[in-house]
Design goal:
This protein has 74 residues and is mainly α. The protein has 3 helices and no strands. It is 88% helix and 0% strand.
């Protein structure tokens, strides 16, 4: 609940990279677990977290570019 409140308060340009970093850290933890256990579950979770991070990265890039175009040049 506190995390949800913090994420609502944070601005977009801080919240999105933070979410990507969290996903990449979880992906790294899953890859480390995969290297130790050689099971398919950590590999699947790593792929999911990596996919989420990539999708959020594309969304962040598109939103950032649209915000730059919307602002008038000074």
């Amino acid at each position: 609940m506190l995390i949800k409140l913090i994420l609502r308060i944070l601005p977009f340009y801080i919240r999105e990279p933070l979410a990507m970093v969290i996903c990449l850290v979880l992906c790294g933890a899953c890859v480390r677990k995969l290297a130790e256990s050689f099971e398919w579950q950590p590999a699947a979770l790593a792929a999911v977290f990596l996919g989420i991070a990539v999708v959020r990265g594309f969304m962040f890039r598109n939103e950032w570019r649209s915000r730059e175009k919307a602002e008038p040049a000074v």
